[in-house]
Amino acid sequence: MKYRRLGKTDLNVSVIGVGTWQFGGDWGKDFTQTEVDGILNRAKDLGINLIDTAECYGPHHMSESFIGNFLSRDNREDWVVASKFGHKWHDHWEHAWSAEAVKIQLEESLQALKTDYIDLYQFHSGSDEVFLNDDLWTMLDKAIQAGKIRNLGISIGANDNIFQTDKAEEVNAKAIQVVYNRLDQIPEKEVFPSCIKQDLGVLARVPLASGFLSGKYHPGVTFQDNVRKGLTREDIDKKLTLVEKIQKEEVPEGINMAQWALAWCLQHPAVTTVIPGCKSPEQIEMNAAAADLEFVKGDHPSSI
Questions:
Q1: Owning domain of residue 39
Q2: CATH number assigned to the domain comprising residue 114
Q3: CA-CA distance, 206 to 262, in Å (whole number)?
């Protein structure tokens, strides 16, 4: 495994992380604690040290609770735990952006994660209007001083949101999380240059384009999960036709497409880590192997 410094933090994170949105049950599968433990134990064996989650990944902090149960039996110091705030899913879904509401969310997340601190606490895809809240950022700075948060970050909802990215230093945020993959390169235009200028870490989410870049699907496939089943037949086939073209023209022979897609993200100098989701220890192994691919500028990721 390879590691990179996360922006201006003192954190060295694995270039492959674990995205845990799927633990909340929205990816067409309900997880058990045993399954989550198996995934995270295998991740640790492979040198992965970054877990990304959020309080709204599943009702009642479900993803965070799975992770917390695991951490309670492991060495907390071995992990970089990133979570997010701004949305609340208990008996129903709602937004929660006031300083007082986020303060409550933080305490609930700490309890669910069974930890005294969160390494990276991220503003979660909120509007520019709720972002501009001095009371919120003052409260979060006090939480840093109290040791409950080690670093702040911003998970931008739109991957061209340069407004929030440019203001990262003003609110003491040290990392940006953004959608970035071979099918969606929008951050390269403005967001990444701003991140480089401010020395912000970058967490690339959805690096496999919701599975389209896994190489497993072909035009005509149907999806049942809550994310992709909302796409039109035309949209699905258009994406998969492009993926087939990419696989034929860009992915070197003998290289797994999903691993190539992760390595493709990591070649950009702004990107610190990718955080693909996974359903099994086997998928963790496949993701981790992408760290052994090297992208030569002007070429394609190839085996070292």
A1: 3-214+261-303
A2: 3.20.20.100
A3: 10
Amino acid of residue 64: E
d(Cα 124, Cα 182) in Å, to the nearest integer? 23
Asked, for residue 222, whether it belongs to a domain, the answer is: no
Query: What is the distance between the terminal CA atoms of the chain, rounded to a whole angstrom?
Result: 13
Q: What is the pLDDT of residues 118-150, one digit of tens each?
A: 999 999 999 999 999 999 999 999 999 999 999
Task: Specify if 101 maps to a domain.
Answer: yes
Tokens 């909802």 -> residue: 157
Give yes or no for a contact between 271 and 204, defined as CB atoms under 8 angstroms apart.
yes
Q: Which of helix, strand or coil describes residue 54?
A: coil
The DSSP code for 165 is H
Query: What is the count of structural domains for the chain?
Result: 1
pTM: 0.92
Per the listing, tokens 């073209």 go with 245
Give me the sign of the Cα torsion angle 286, 287, 291, 296.
positive
Q: How far is residue 19's CA from residue 207's CA, in Å, rounded to a whole number? A: 10
224 part of a folded domain: no
Report the candidate in 19, 120, 18, 119 with the shortest Cα–Cα distance to residue 77: 119
Q: Is residue 266 part of a domain?
A: yes
